[in-house]
Amino acid sequence: MQDLVNLAAELSGKPITYTNLPQDDYAGVLVSGGFPKELADALADNNAGALRGAWHTASDDLTRILGRPATGPRQVMADALAALGQH
User: Fold this and answer.
1) Is 13 left (phi over 0), alpha (psi -120 to 50) or beta?
2) How many degrees, rounded to 5, is the angle at CA 30 between CA 17 and CA 35?
3) Which residues contact 73 (CB under 8 A, 6 or more apart)?
4) What is the mean pLDDT of each run of 10 residues along the chain (87 residues)?
5) What CATH architecture is 2-83?
6) What is the DSSP letter of 85?
């Protein structure tokens, strides 16, 4: 997550900070923001999994499904910022 925040800060030219909350605290923040508890728990669990490396894969499934190379995070963020007039 910190890598994505660093990338967003670099591309936007704006300082961005990231604070990783413990799983239960993160779920609590989501609930306090209006998320149903079950969804908040699932999102917090997903975030905890990402921190453990659960999102990492060496699979080429996405490339095969798309029929082209996947767009990397740098390009996705740059395109999103450009669409918002931020870059």
Assistant:
1) left
2) 145
3) 4, 7
4) 92 93 97 98 95 89 95 94 82
5) Alpha-Beta Complex (3.90)
6) T
